[in-house]
Design brief:
Blueprint lengths: L7 H14 L6 H15 L2 H18 L3 H13 L3 H14 L4 H16 L7 H14 L4 H14 L7 H18 L4 H13 L3 H13 L3 H7 L8 H8 L3 H13 L11 H17 L10 H9 L4 E5 L2 E4 L8 H4 L3 H4 L3 E4 L2 E8 L2 E8 L8 E2 L1 H13 L16 E8 L26 E3 L3 E6 L18 E9 L14 E9 L4 E8 L5 E2 L7 E10 L2 E11 L4 E11 L8 E2 L3 E4 L10 E3 L2 E5 L4 E2 L4 E9 L7 E11 H12 L17 E2 L2 E2 L6 E4 L3 E3 L6 E9 L6 E11 L4 E11 L2 H8 L2
Parallel strand pairs: 21-30
Antiparallel strand pairs: 1-4, 2-3, 4-5, 5-6, 7-10, 8-26, 9-28, 10-14, 11-12, 11-15, 13-14, 15-16, 17-22, 18-20, 18-22, 19-20, 22-28, 23-26, 23-27, 23-29, 24-25, 29-30
Helix pairs in contact: 1-2, 2-3, 2-4, 3-4, 4-5, 5-6, 6-7, 6-8, 7-8, 8-9, 8-10, 9-10, 10-11, 10-15, 15-16
Length: 746
């Protein structure tokens, strides 16, 4: 039986037979060599130490033979001594510089050494060595894969050009896949690079293509539930199998999607990326990286801010010592006496805004199998029972219910943050227009604002294309039996990051009494609002909450897309959700373009089935007398996401009118009916823009007939003289007052 096909059980059965042959052979060294290999494969610590002693004893006879050097390198690596393993293989390359397999293995072992400290500065030099290896065989799949993996690790350096390195990593894998199109590992690593590039659609497609080709046991890992899924859903998921189980997992992930109206789930893509990286970083023979203790922590919190590695000690004692097995006979009882031992250790430090913690792992078996130290077990148990998986700088903690609504408007037109005493009862609805054509249950009324001043295009004070992004963050109570001032020592932070995930804006405020909000359904929440001037582009919003008194933390994260309002086309701002001003709600009112409103960051509608939306229109051809027609379409959220997915995959065209739905159509098992769909056309109106060329608009939507569920409202305005149209979309949830109150008053 060859060593490559031998299992640990095979090796343990072979060892006594080889030992019996030692006294009955003319060539004991050859038997000892096979015995060393069997001990290495057997896998126990004393077996691997025995293997190292045997290999050392055989060095005078076999020291320059390649097979001996390979097997000794494997024994060193199995004992978590990659530096010694690399030295063995470097002897092979010194005698044969064209041995590509050995050169690649040396590179892999050097990566293991660097990973102990997460110090990747030497990767540039290693990539130079890999380039020399590739010149020997430009299409070698293992070399291309290793180079791409090194490109990713190089992105961890503080001064790295992450985008350039990830593009280079993708390019190497494209070369690999051109000759080995079935390489699933190459597809998975390529998806990791696409995630680093924030090319979410491409990463999603690449991951799904690769996952579909995985063996069932590995595929099941990618199709598992998110961490902290409640017991009811977990039991339901465990009772399913195959596609049904995968569909339920996708639905649960979708419920935590930071961008629910796009066809991809960025958090799940990042989690998939961590699964791939965990295998590369922590995987060992017979143990996938995501199943190890360090892998599980990595899946939840990503790379640590700081890593301290203590190599421990496993040194062979001098052979002249009388207790050395050379003098006593090499047996399991004596082998460990010839080594001085101290377990290797990892200490990882995570730093989040307002909170830091350290996790320690020990390699008690001296084989690279790190387990959580006793002092870290309680900490991890507390975090895992209370905090969500953290992405980016999202903060782990027990405050997990955080909501936000955002709205992009041309600079100078956004909402203003409320001040103390700004609560009012003004209605959002001005001159009401009756709906000319209604399909479905909703009815609506719109507001119109006019001005006699000359119109001009929206612009920032500097003349640059800058967009005002308004953010309202809602924070339901997180304390049971809470005091009246449960919010008093609470800080709210909002961070905006660009597509490279670099911080571009930051706000931090202490919650004030006038920020406490009491919506229709009763209960309480905090409303925090702020404005940000941002150039057009893609961004990420992170909201962090810290209660200094009880040391609880929470965070949420979502994607922002800021359009360019200066391109001259008819444009709409984002839709912002609001509670009706004539309701029984109390709390901070805000002002948006002269209209007072109460924001609805929960994006939820209770039994009253009433929802207000606000927006502005820009660049009408005739600002003095624009002829406008408005349309509001309400669709199930799954329907909207399904249509977006069909467009993304090229099944239907982006301008296909079906994207707004058609009564009776089916998509993804959803049939449009009066209970989940409505389409409202308003009659033509002649409106006038204000002095900045902006037409503020709004609608009060009556959702009486809608059943409970997740929805999206699509607002479309058409300028009739030119035929130009603009659309905006926002998601919301229809629920009951009881559920809404439970959320706001736990």
């Amino acid at each position: 039986m060859s060593a490559d096909s031998m299992t640990a059980d095979d090796a343990r059965a072979l060892i006594p037979r080889l030992e019996a042959q030692l006294d009955h052979t003319d060539d004991p060294d050859s038997i000892l060599f096979e015995l060393a290999i069997a001990h290495r494969i057997a896998g126990e610590l004393d077996d691997r130490l025995t293997a190292l002693v045997y290999f050392d004893r055989l060095r005078p006879k076999y020291g320059h033979e390649h097979r001996y050097l390979w097997e000794r390198a494997k024994a060193y690596e199995a004992s978590n001594r990659p530096s010694n393993a690399r030295e063995c293989l470097e002897e092979i390359v010194a005698s044969d510089s064209t041995d590509i397999v050995a050169r690649n293995e040396i590179a892999r072992l050097r990566v293991q050494e660097m990973l102990r400290h997460y110090d990747f500065h030497d990767i540039v030099a290693l990539l130079d060595d890999m380039a020399a290896t590739r010149r020997l065989d430009p299409t070698n799949a293992q070399t291309l894969y290793l180079e791409s993996y090194l490109d990713y690790l190089a992105t961890r350096n503080p001064d790295a050009d992450r985008l350039a390195l990830s593009r280079q990593g993708c390019s190497r894998l494209d070369e690999l896949l051109a000759t080995s199109p079935g390489s699933v590992d190459a597809k998975l690593l390529r998806a990791v690079h696409l995630t680093e590039l924030r090319l979410w659609d491409e990463a999603d497609l690449q991951f799904r293509t690769a996952i579909d080709s995985l063996p069932p046991d590995r595929k099941a890992v990618f199709e598992s539930l998110p961490p902290l899924t409640n017991e009811t859903l977990t039991r339901k998921w465990e009772g399913l199998a195959g596609e049904e189980r995968a569909r339920l997992a996708s639905a649960v992930w979708r419920g935590q999607d930071p961008t629910p109206l796009t066809p991809v789930d960025e958090n799940r893509i990042e989690y998939w990326s961590r699964l791939v990286l965990a295998d590369l970083l922590f995987g060992r023979t017979g143990a996938p990286g995501w199943a190890t203790d360090p892998g599980r922590v990595f899946l939840r919190y990503g790379f640590p801010e700081q890593n301290v590695f203590s190599p421990g000690k496993m040194e062979e004692l001098p052979s002249e010592m009388q207790k050395h097995p050379y003098y006593q006979g090499v047996t399991r009882a004596t082998i460990q006496k010839s080594f001085a031992m101290e377990a290797p250790a990892w200490s990882w430090t995570y730093r989040f805004p307002g909170r830091s913690f350290e996790v320690k792992f020990l390699d008690q078996t001296y084989q690279g199998r790190y387990v959580t130290a006793d002092e870290s077990t309680k900490l991890l148990a507390e975090l895992e029972s209370s905090s969500p998986t953290s992405f980016g700088d999202a903060l782990p903690g027990r405050i997990t219910r955080i909501f936000a609504t955002t709205a992009a408007t041309a600079a100078g037109t956004a909402a203003t943050v409320p001040t103390a005493g700004s609560v009012g009862a003004a209605t959002i609805v001005g001159a009401a227009a009756s709906a000319a054509s209604v399909s479905g249950p909703a009815t609506a009324a719109t507001t119109t604002t006019t001005s006699s001043a000359a119109a001009s295009a929206p612009a920032s004070a500097s003349g640059e294309a800058v967009t005002r992004y308004h953010v309202a963050v809602g924070l339901p109570p997180w304390l049971r039996d809470r005091p009246d001032d449960w919010w008093r020592q609470t800080d709210v932070e909002v961070v905006i990051r660009d597509a490279k995930y670099e911080k571009v804006a930051f706000r931090k405020r202490r919650v004030q009494a006038e920020s406490v909000y009491r919506p229709d359904s009763g209960g309480e929440m905090i409303v925090y609002a702020d404005d940000f001037d941002l150039p057009p582009g893609e961004y990420w919003l992170e909201a962090q909450v810290v209660d200094q008194h009880i040391d609880e933390h929470g965070s949420m994260r979502r994607r922002l897309e800021v359009p360019d309002f200066r391109d001259g086309r008819l444009r709409m701002s984002d839709l912002e959700l609001a509670f009706p001003m004539d309701s029984t709600a109390s709390g901070p009112a805000m002002s948006r373009h002269g209209r007072r409103y109460r924001p609805n960051p929960l994006a939820m509608v209770g039994d009253a089935r009433r929802l207000n939306v606000l927006y502005e229109i820009y660049h009408v051809p005739d600002p003095a007398a624009a002829r406008i027609q408005a349309r509001y379409t309400i669709l199930p959220r799954g329907y909207v996401v399904g249509i977006a997915d069909l467009i993304r995959r090229g099944v239907i065209a982006a301008d296909d009118p079906r994207r707004f739905g058609s009564l009776g159509m089916q998509l993804g098992g959803i049939t449009l009916t009066r209970e989940n769909y409505s389409d409202l056309y308003f009659p033509e109106e002649v409106v006038q823009a204000d002095s900045a060329g902006i037409i503020p608009r709004g609608a009060a939507l009556d959702l009486t007939d809608l059943q409970a569920g997740e929805y999206a409202v699509i607002a479309t305005v058409t300028e009739l003289a030119s035929g130009q149209s603009a659309s905006a979309i926002v998601g919301f949830r229809v629920t009951s007052d009881a559920e809404l109150k439970a959320l706001l008053d736990p």
